[in-house]
Amino acid sequence: MANLTRKTSKAKSRSRRAANQKVKQSLNLIECPNCHTKKLPHRVCESCGFYDGKDILNKARD
After folding, report:
1. CB atoms closer than 10 angstroms to residue 49
2. CA 36 to chain centre
């Protein structure tokens, strides 16, 4: 077996262990002001194509 040349710091070993114990956060969904469906914040609404009061998806098609 190989011998260690340097001691692994507490922060390094604890962060390695903690990587597998992360708690998954629930998604922060908001209501679309146009069609009132749930969507991710700062994203174009998938159902109506509006973002910030503007029709983004239909404008791109024209």
Report:
1. 17
2. 21
Q: Where are the beta strands (DSSP E) in 1-62?
A: 30-31, 38-39, 50-51, 54-55
* pLDDT score recorded for residue 62: 53
pLDDT digits 0-9 by tens, 9-52 = 999 999 998 888 877 777 889 999 999 999 999 999 999 999 99
- Token pair listed for 62: 């024209």
CA dihedral 53, 54, 55, 60 (to 10 degrees): -160
Structure tokens at 49: 């194509």
Matching residue, tokens 């260690």: 4
What is the residue extent of each domain of the chain? 26-62
What is the DSSP secondary-structure string of 8-37?
PPHHHHHHHHHGGGPPPPPP--EE-TTT--
